[in-house]
């Protein structure tokens, strides 16, 4: 039976319960992370936990444990569940308190984590995307549980038969509903700077360092919808999807309408980093 981590305890799903006045449940008042597990190892765990700590700090949640304690707990969870290839989902809410918008003085943060084993690897098949207005708030750098803007955009894309919704503010492309967006023009890699308008993806960071090691020039500069449509290659990145080529946006083919060489070499180099990290 797969176990769930609730604060310090490993419980069955039936045993675990969340209070109806948990602020995560009522306000989305919390933060989360998704960490990939390859060959029974977490990938980039420290980077994820640092980002979690930062997200919590930005919304004034004080973690009631150290990062090394948290690490021990999730390692134990992974081991108990014997996960080979999959991911860990982890969230921390502000805790339980009578419903009131202001932060409660006394509330103990609630940690929930569970693992998911993949029956097959997530699809990296070249995808099709649509543009959508970025109606989200201005702190997209915080990995908050409040994902309504993201899920509404993703649902709209799904219903219309697309694989991802790509957000834009005015003419500027920001990121995908659950991914970072990159374009390649004349062998230069562009992606939106890591500011308050996007989540600084762990995969994004990895791709930028991998690109440098492949001598691909990187520019953390914003680009327009038009520049994206005229790019040689476009791809999206995330913990679960790694590097996924986007070959069409709003029905317009990108480049020659196939996965590009730079995209393929970045994915291949990322895979090398992943297999090295498994040892
Ligand atoms: N942007 C958003 C809005 C996301 O939800 C995600 C996925 N967590 C990403 C970017 C990619 O981040 P990461 O590479 O850390 O998974």
Automatic annotation (TrEMBL):
It is an enzyme of class 2 (transferase). It holds the Pfam family Aminotran_4. GO terms for biological process: amino acid biosynthetic process; carboxylic acid biosynthetic process; D-amino acid metabolic process. The keyword RNA-binding does not apply. The keyword Coiled coil does not apply. GO terms for cellular component: cytosol. It catalyses: D-alanine + 2-oxoglutarate = D-glutamate + pyruvate. Its EC number is 2.6.1.21. Keywords: Aminotransferase, Pyridoxal phosphate, Transferase. GO terms for molecular function: D-alanine-2-oxoglutarate aminotransferase activity; pyridoxal phosphate binding. Homodimer. PANTHER family: AMINO-ACID AMINOTRANSFERASE (PTHR42743), D-ALANINE AMINOTRANSFERASE (PTHR42743:SF10). Acts on the D-isomers of alanine, leucine, aspartate, glutamate, aminobutyrate, norvaline and asparagine. The enzyme transfers an amino group from a substrate D-amino acid to the pyridoxal phosphate cofactor to form pyridoxamine and an alpha-keto acid in the first half-reaction. Belongs to the class-IV pyridoxal-phosphate-dependent aminotransferase family. This is D-alanine aminotransferase. It comes from Guptibacillus hwajinpoensis. The lineage of its organism: Bacteria, Bacillati, Bacillota, Bacilli, Bacillales.
């Amino acid at each position: 039976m797969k176990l769930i981590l609730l604060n310090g305890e490993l419980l069955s799903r039936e045993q675990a319960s969340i209070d109806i006045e948990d602020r995560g449940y009522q306000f989305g008042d919390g933060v989360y992370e998704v960490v990939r597990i390859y060959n029974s190892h977490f990938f980039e765990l420290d980077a994820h936990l640092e980002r979690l700590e930062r997200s919590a700090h930005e919304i004034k949640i004080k973690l009631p444990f150290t990062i090394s304690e948290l690490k021990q707990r999730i390692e134990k969870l992974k081991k108990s569940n014997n996960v080979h290839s999959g991911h860990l989902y982890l969230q921390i809410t502000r805790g339980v308190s009578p419903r009131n918008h202001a932060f409660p003085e006394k509330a103990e943060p609630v940690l929930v984590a569970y693992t998911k084993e993949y029956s097959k690897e997530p699809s990296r098949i070249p995808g099709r995307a649509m543009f959508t207005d970025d109606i989200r708030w201005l702190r997209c750098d915080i990995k908050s549980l409040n994902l309504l803007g993201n899920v509404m955009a993703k649902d709209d894309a799904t219903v219309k038969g697309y694989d991802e919704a790509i957000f834009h503010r005015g003419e500027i492309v920001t990121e995908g509903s659950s991914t970072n967006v990159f374009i390649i023009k004349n062998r230069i890699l562009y992606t939106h700077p890591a500011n308050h308008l996007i989540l600084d993806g762990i995969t994004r960071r990895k791709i930028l360092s991998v690109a440098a090691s492949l001598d691909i020039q990187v520019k953390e500069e914003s680009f327009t919808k038009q520049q994206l449509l005229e790019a040689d290659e476009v791809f999206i990145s995330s913990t679960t999807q790694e590097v996924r080529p986007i070959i069409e946006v709003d029905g317009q083919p990108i480049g020659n309408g196939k996965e590009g060489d730079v995209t393929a070499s970045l994915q291949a180099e990322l895979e090398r980093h992943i297999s090295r990290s498994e040892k």
